[in-house]
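Table S2 (text version). Query chain:
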Amino acid sequence: MFSCNNNNYMNSRNNNSCNNNSNNNGCNDCPDVFNIMQVVKQNTDFRRILNTSDNMQVTAMCISPNDCIGLENHANTDQFICIVCGCCKLMSGNHRDCLTCQEILKEGCCCIIPANTWHNVVNIGSCPLKLFSIYAPPENHNSCGCMDMGMDMCMPNMYTKNNDNGCGCK
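Corresponding structure-token output:
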């Protein structure tokens, strides 16, 4: 039986079979159970898809210091972002050239970005930013975790790095 305390999500996930559960009444639709905080902290990929269903997608991200997710807009998808480690500047607005809302998000903070909102998340800390994101309905991200947006996508004129912002890493 799978435990949420399992230390190795990727390996344990493959062993979490409904067929071994005597209480499943022949159903093969067991929930995907894992410790998201632990999975996100262990993730070193820029973007790692953890689960995609018909109605939502869960991804873990690791963003290097001074790097970002890149300016984006999800026309029909709401996005939930939760910061697990580090801190960032969230910039958002109704137009790609007018990101009027700017917030500092630290460990434990989350935000909900409505569909059709332009946004970018920039790591302003000194260690990798670890976060998870939920898209509803799902986005069509490449499942490869090797994509790196690079600083050229971060619009450096839109933020300033501040080392006095309490963005320590644990």
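Notes on Table S2: The longest helix spans residues 9-15. Helices lie at 9-15, 36-42.
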